[in-house]
Design goal:
Layout: H1 16-33, H2 37-41, H3 50-60, H4 80-94, H5 96-107, H6 110-113, H7 120-131, E1 138-141, H8 148-152, H9 154-157, E2 165-169, E3 172-179, E4 191-197, E5 208-214, E6 220-222, E7 239-247, H10 257-294, E8 296-297, E9 300-301, H11 306-334, H12 336-339, H13 346-374, H14 376-379, H15 385-397, H16 401-414
Bound molecules: flavin-adenine dinucleotide.
Length: 419
């Protein structure tokens, strides 16, 4: 009998190590998270349950360590993209909000910690915190009140709308600005990667800056957690920076290179978003398979009715197609020597927007179709379809939303010149 492990996952591409990571997360989720998933969903404001669970995942299971060098306690994985896919899909099968919180902890660090653009100085200073025995959480602060999509639409807006400024004063950066929405903001984050400009209104790539700001720096303040439709394990809030001073060395690379390597984080975010969609769809598959087997309607199991079989087939196709596409792009990212472009290449970023868009449409459709055929049972909390349905919607909305995703995908495939 096929299970979720029979959906495409090319055996010759995904190493034993990555498969073991997936199994470890699944075991942990079954024992520690799934039994209290509904309670966790109510914990959005205080994170009384969520914070200890984050410690278990990021510290005890070691998910924070993946990309850091071994010298500072990291796992130094050379299969970064495959690892992201496995981790994101397994965590999202448990809870996509929790997956978001875990993955975003080191997301903003990627431009500084991945080879071949690794900053040893930043790894030495912050690696032991992320890889140590205490919970240490990162946050990638890009979005601003004026527009999130404009900040991410770097190919066309070129940073001109970024309002958060970084000004060099002697050996310190002085940061002023306001970020909204970042995952792990509020009281949770210990360290912010802040997307800044060194000259407001500039379109010069040299003015785009990624600067680390420890959350306890004077002048940093955060707001209350937002009340959202779903993704409750992910805490989001405002962050204000008022004359915040950090050492000059906290800028990742410097003029030009900050923007260049940031693109890799954006492509990885698109890939992780797709993997989360796969994870949610796998959970949906498990739920509807059981339900339509056990529920008897008009004298036979629900799944034996042709209309229902059509829906079940549709969900399986969505999982299979999204998985195949996701693993292909992960392969491209992890093997630039074969595919002949760097993972931070702007063209690759544009392509990954297409994957993310496809995956978010697929998961939306899968959750909605599953609910259609579970009837009122799908709409109540008990069977978790309702939770996935609420949670998944934002995967299409974040990282620039569906508009930017479609636009950038078209920009790649059709050489758009004005959009
Ligand atoms: C749960 C959650 C987690 C998040 N995590 C983070 C995080 O970790 N870090 C972070 O910085 N932000 C984060 N965000 C914010 C998120 O990434 C932004 O909300 C998103 O980028 C969209 O920005 P916006 O809401 O300002 O929409 P807008 O920029 O106002 O866009 C509105 C709509 O217009 C579309 N659009 C924009 N430009 C164009 C165009 N040129 N052509 C066509 N359509 C266009 C967009 O696609 C979107 O559909 C998170 C948000 C949520 C809900």
């Amino acid at each position: 009998m096929p299970t979720i492990d029979d959906f495409i996952q090319p055996k010759e591409w995904v190493s034993e190590f990555i498969i073991e990571v997936g199994k470890m997360i699944r075991r942990w989720g079954e024992e520690r998270y799934i039994p209290i998933r509904q309670q966790v969903d109510e914990d959005w404001r205080d994170h009384v349950l969520i914070e200890p669970l984050l410690k278990e995942a990021l510290v005890d299971l070691g998910l924070n360590k993946g990309m850091f060098p071994a010298e500072v306690g990291g796992a130094d994985s050379s299969e970064g993209a495959a690892g992201i896919c496995m981790t994101a899909q397994e965590l999202a099968r448990i809870d996509s909000g929790f997956a978001t919180a875990c993955l975003c902890s080191t997301w903003g660090m990627m431009p500084a910690i991945l080879e071949p653009h690794r900053s040893q100085e930043i790894c030495r200073e912050f690696g032991p915190k992320f890889c140590g025995p205490e919970l240490y959480v990162g946050c990638h602060a890009m979005t601003e009140p004026a527009s999130g999509a404009d900040v991410e639409n770097i190919g066309r807006m070129q940073g001109r709308t970024i309002r958060t400024t970084a000004t060099l004063d002697g050996d310190e950066w002085v940061i002023n600005g306001h970020k909204i929405w970042p995952t792990n903001s509020g009281k949770l984050a210990d360290l912010f990667t802040v997307v800044c400009t060194t000259r407001r209104g500039s379109t010069d790539p040299n003015d785009f800056a990624l600067i680390l700001v420890p959350a306890d720096t004077e002048g940093v303040s955060t707001g209350a957690p937002y009340r959202k439709c779903g993704m409750n394990a992910d805490m989001n809030s405002d962050i204000w920076f008022e004359n915040v001073r950090v050492p000059r060395r906290y800028r990742f690379h410097g003029p030009g290179d900050d923007l260049k390597y940031w693109r890799r984080a954006i492509s990885s975010g698109n890939l992780a978003s797709a993997a989360m969609c796969v994870g949610v769809m796998k959970s949906v598959y498990e739920i509807i398979k059981k339900w339509t087997t056990e529920r008897v309607v008009a004298g036979k199991p629900l799944k034996e009715h042709s209309l229902v079989a059509d829906m079940l087939s549709e969900v399986a196709l969505l999982i299979e197609s999204t998985s195949a596409w996701m693993w292909c792009y992960a392969r491209e990212m992890d093997h630039p020597e074969i595919y002949r472009w760097d993972p931070w290449d702007e063209r690759f970023l544009l392509k990954t927007r297409g994957l993310s868009l496809y995956a978010s449409n697929a998961v939306e459709q899968a959750c909605s179709r599953a609910m259609d055929f579970m009837g009122s049972y799908g709409y109540c909390r008990e069977f978790d379809i309702e939770k996935h349905w609420r949670d998944q919607k934002v995967i299409g909305l974040w990282m620039g939303g569906k508009g930017l995703k479609a636009l950038e995908n078209a920009r790649y495939w059709y050489d758009l010149e004005t959009l």
